Amino acid sequence: MSSITTLKYTLQLADNVLIMGQRLAAWCGKGPVLEQDIALTNISLDQIGQARSLYQYAALIINNMPAADKAHLFNAPLLQEKINNQHTITEDDLAYLRDAWDFRNCLLVEQENGDWAYTVARSFFFDRFQYLLYAALQKSMDSTLAAIAEKSLKEVQYHIKWASEWVIRLGDGTAISKEKMQQALQARWEYTGELFAMNAIEQAAMQANIGVDVSSLQQAYQQQIEAIVNEASLQMPTAAWMQTGGKNGVHTEHLGYILAEMQYLQRAYPNMEW
Amino acid sequence: MSNENKEWPLWEVFIRSKAGLDHKHAGSLHAADAQMAIENARDVYTRRMEGISIWVVESKHIHASNPEEAAAFFDPAQDKIYRHPTFYNLPDELKHM
Question: What is B2-62's CATH number?
Answer without folding.
Answer: 3.10.20.520
